[in-house]
Amino acid sequence: MNKAQIIESVSVQMPERRWIHTQGVMSTAIELAKRYGENPERAELAAIIHDVAKYWPVAEQAAYIKQYSLDEQVLQYNKELWHAEVGASVAKEKYGVHDSEICDAIRYHTSGRANMTLIEKIVWLADYIEPNRDFPGVNEARALAETSLERAILFGLDQTIVFLIEKGKIVYPVTIEARNSIVQQLNMK
Fold first, then answer.
1. Which residue from 56, 60, 42, 59 is spatially nearest to 121, judged by alpha carbons?
2. Alpha carbon distance 75, 94 (integer Å)
3. Which H or E element spans position 38?
């Protein structure tokens, strides 16, 4: 499928407000890719597809994860994580995306992970700071993104973890690993 066909397919699978979010992630991913040395077309493709499964019924997401032998560990955690695992598989199976880094950027756009690649960092951060987001701290994250991808991601991961703790939610261990990995990267600079 070409980009226009993928956009058409993805956009009809979500409410208009989520498509507006996706467009914000696309433009932010392109901007970050140009700033930090990633191919903007790869970042944009991951951004287009990142939320493709977000509005699938939860039971359908769980069934897809089991049917396609995806990482079932995610099913033990917050349902908000599931669409990322499904989306990465849909990118490959439905849209013919065989670039594993693009698929992983989709897979880890909610949780992050240890040793994220550049494209994974860009898509994670673009999803967090896109222009339509409005929550306490987002402007600080945007400002940090102007000069340091890692500092902006660390800020975002810290905010996310604190939010989950304050809400009494379980923190996905992969997110903790992502934070620790970013701290180590920053300490090595």
1. 42
2. 22
3. none
